[in-house]
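One chain is below:
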Amino acid sequence: MFALLFAVLVGILLGFIAGLVPGLHPNTFATVLSGLGFDPLLVQFCIIALAAAATVFESLRAIFLFIPDSNTVLTILPGHRMLMEGKGMRAVAVCSLAFIASTALAFLLLPVSLALFPALYAVIAPITPQILLALSIALLATERKPGKIAAATLCFLLAGFLGILLFTQPIVPDPLFPAFAGLFAISGLVMGMSQQKPLPPQRAAGSAPLSLLPVIAIGTLLAALADLLPGLSSPAQIAVFASIFTYMNSERFLALTSSIASSHLIFALAALLTTGKARMGAVAIVGEAASSISPEWIFALAGAALLATGIAAYLLMPLARFAVPFLSSVKQNELNALVLAYLLSLIFLIGGGPAGLLIAMVAAFIGALPPILGVRRTHVMGFILLPSIARLFI
């Protein structure tokens, strides 16, 4: 028991590093750990705790530094907006509540998901292309006015064609990092530098409102779709579609995206057992390392994920209090320039070299179009939605 607890704590520490340092992906740590020759069960607990904690700590990077990950790519939109309104600490409090509540709810729903996933997967999987297409059309229609719908469609298609190109042609090994960096971070950083807004004083967080609990519950339930719909490879896609059906302000959208990202790990474990599909890299790695996959094994790993999430979420606020004075002492334009230089260097080193930089620049141009055209930037999620739809229809 103490050995397993120690493995979880080591996983949280590694998740802290992976979550805060761009370029150190949790799957990289997981792959290295699985090849070190330690006790397989301890390694599995460590990897799951690492994945859970990294998801939590990535929110700090997204809110304060505007640097996205596949889990937090949509968190930067409401999170950074709240930061620039002096509500950065409030954003962290919302994330903490969403992480803890959603993971706990997903754990409680684990017996139900184990029982229902096989039947639901059999029903949903065959009609996934139609579902994705209908939801994408509905997403564009939320702009309401014909001119804005046309602008949103342009952004969706441009990002989507870029995604089709990158996912079908071996231009770079992993196109997600340079593309997401361009679509969301680089375009936002450059436009933010042109506006020359200083970081405002950050107000006390207060407690995250319990009125967000229904949104968190919705996000938790929708997280299961990331494992039941074959065309959805990221919880961010689910969050985009969920925003169609319910009123979203910054806090609600932040709670929704955080709850989906966090509870996705629990449901991915359930999907591994019931459908044989591992929709997360960390879950796939522990599944391959396991001698047998049983309900007891799934519950034990889900418990490790819940513990790691709780500890990491508890640490978010102290870490944010430490970060705010430092960020406030730096001019916003200087900070944006430093983050931009770091991102470009990282893309060059691990994102495909000159080809990765070219992808990031093209993506940044597309990412700048929505605010220029007056539509929501979430439409550039066509980058992963359109390839999914095309792949499933063909």
Remarks:
- The chain has a mean pLDDT of 83.
